[in-house]
């Protein structure tokens, strides 16, 4: 819990101030979405808490009953999410150096520039590649919890990864009112195996939208297609 609070506090510090501060070297971080960690794209602000996100990044939270702010976890009225005009104004007027070529670019055009910057592409190409753990002759303890696949807490369907568990629960248990224990949280060292979530589907959408496999194995198109299908499924129900 302490780690989660520290992450929230760190993300809150990235929320944009009323005007540019701290020099242009930190502007990109100040005007970055806490969800995708990129410069805001079509930013929107939650009326109750004031936190700002990319419009597309906030969409999954708007598809569930009684949504919570992804940053501070406070409930908010989806009808009171408005275009963050003051942030868009800052994005159009403030410039920051590209993290690759150091050319100063307006924040509103930073995403487009970074996607075509050869220096950024070179940096990404030189990032360390994932390498599997070297096999060992030492015995593997038998009491290590399985944190790769999970069982549905409603019907017991097994061998579901995080994305499959989310899809399964949306399709089969969206209207189930029972309080259940999150199998993902309970498998973690900090998890409470006795805590039952009052709205498990909302918990999945907010807390477990992304997983390691999403970043490693999913292409951008596959992830976008999945999120679009999920939003459609929720709206139809």
From TrEMBL:
One GO CC term, this protein: cytoplasm
* Biochemical pathway: Protein modification; protein ubiquitination
Q: Please name the SMART domains in this protein's record.
A: RING
| Alphabetical list of InterPro entries matching this protein | Di19_Zn-bd, RNF_E3_ubiq-protein_ligase, ZF_C2HC_RNF, Znf-RING_euk, Znf_RING, Znf_RING/FYVE/PHD, Znf_RING_CS
Residue ranges of domain RING-type in the record: 33-73
Q: Which domain of life is it from?
A: Eukaryota
Entry-linked PROSITE patterns: ZF_C2HC_RNF, ZF_RING_1, ZF_RING_2
Q: Which Pfam families match?
A: zf-Di19, zf-RING_UBOX, zf_C2HC_14
Q: Where is the C2HC RNF-type domain?
A: 98-117
Which CDD domains would you find in this protein's record? RING-HC_RNF166
Cellular compartments annotated? Cytoplasm
Primary subcellular site in the record, as a coarse category: cytoplasm
The UniProt GO MF terms for this protein read: ubiquitin protein ligase activity; zinc ion binding
Q: Which reaction does it catalyse?
A: S-ubiquitinyl-[E2 ubiquitin-conjugating enzyme]-L-cysteine + [acceptor protein]-L-lysine = [E2 ubiquitin-conjugating enzyme]-L-cysteine + N(6)-ubiquitinyl-[acceptor protein]-L-lysine
Q: What is its EC number?
A: 2.3.2.27
Alphabetical keyword list = Cytoplasm, Metal-binding, Transferase, Ubl conjugation pathway, Zinc, Zinc-finger
What's one GO BP annotation on this UniProt entry?
A: protein polyubiquitination
Q: What class of enzyme is it?
A: transferase
Name this protein carries in UniProt: E3 ubiquitin-protein ligase RNF166
Q: Which organism is it from?
A: Prolemur simus
**Which lineage?**
Eukaryota, Metazoa, Chordata, Craniata, Vertebrata
What gene name is listed for this protein? RNF166
